[in-house]
Specification:
It is a single chain. By secondary structure, the protein is of the alpha+beta class. The chain has two domains: 78 residues, Beta Barrel (OB fold (Dihydrolipoamide Acetyltransferase, E2P)); 124 residues, de novo design (two linked rop proteins) (Up-down Bundle), CATH 1.20.1440. It is built from eight helices and eight strands; from the N terminus they run βββββαααββαβαααα. The strands form two sheets. It has a five-stranded mixed β-barrel. Strands 7-6-8 form a three-stranded antiparallel beta sheet. The longest helix is centred in the last third of the chain and has 19 residues. The radius of gyration is 20 Å and the shape is elongated. It starts with 6 loop residues before the first strand and ends with a helix. The model has no long low-confidence stretch (mean pLDDT 92).
Length: 256
């Protein structure tokens, strides 16, 4: 934190918060101007706090921050987008929590990334509008990986370099992408991936969001795509995400 900067005006998305003492909260923010920051919101656990409603997770907010001894302190807060529909449905909460957790786990306090801020903001807006979550979240995963330098190779074998042919292949998080049948059969860590699952992942990776939403994907192929993406994300994060289990529980509850 630069000591010369005594105040900072940012636009942020609240990723999460935790109690800090009896009345304060510690916020994890992803800002448009400075990337990820932590800040203290003083007194927001009190019933009469005017800032509390602006600082809930998923909220897009304009903040004035003051430089404290160790952390920024929130002095002003103004909501830009509350995404209220996200809070009215448990499955939407789970989807939004997944998007936020994924960005939170992949990023550090290392400076601005405006495209990443915009990606999270538009993803939350689309979830709030009720757009199809499967396509939305797979598209979000692939764009986020692109922006952070973890783009999976889906068009050439990461073993031999040959162009991938239209047939069932293998997928290796360890090697960073798809393996042809010859290379995949020699890699114990690789997992099978069907020609259809790979075809749609490639389509999402090279398409605009509007083009991706036009794809009609059978449910078994959706499940396979989601599983292979979770394999890839878990490998690079070195442990599993928390929200997929929550999302599965929500889905089971809806079908019971």
């Amino acid at each position: 934190m630069p000591p010369a900067e005594r105040t900072l005006r940012v636009e942020a998305i609240v990723l999460r918060h935790s109690d800090w003492g009896e009345a304060d909260r510690l916020l994890s923010l992803f800002t448009r101007e400075e990337g990820k920051l932590r800040a203290i919101a003083k007194g927001v656990q009190r019933l009469r706090s005017r800032k509390a409603g602006h600082l809930e997770p998923f909220t897009r907010v304009k903040l004035m921050l003051a430089h404290g001894r160790d952390l920024w302190i929130v002095t002003q807060a103004e909501t830009v987008a509350a995404y209220l529909a996200l809070r009215e449905d448990l499955e939407r909460i789970a989807h939004a929590s997944y998007a936020v957790e994924l960005l939170d786990r992949f990023t550090y306090e290392e400076g601005a990334n405006r495209p990443l801020f915009d990606l999270l903001a538009i993803t939350l807006q689309r979830l709030n509008e009720g757009q199809p979550p499967f396509t939305l979240l797979r598209y979000y995963e692939l764009r986020l990986l692109d922006l952070l330098g973890f783009r999976p190779e889906l068009f050439r074998c990461v073993g031999c370099g040959d162009e991938i042919q239209p047939q069932d292949q293998f997928f290796s998080p360890l090697l960073g992408g798809v393996l042809c049948p010859r290379c995949g059969s020699q890699d114990a860590s690789a997992r099978p991936i069907s020609v259809n699952a790979l075809r749609f992942l490639r389509h999402f990776q090279r398409s605009t969001y509007a083009e991706a939403t036009r794809a009609v994907i059978p449910v078994p192929v959706q499940q396979e795509m989601e599983t292979r993406m979770q394999d890839y994300l878990t490998y690079y994060l070195e442990r599993g995400l928390n929200t997929p289990a929550f999302l599965r529980a929500v889905r089971r509850r809806k079908t019971d």
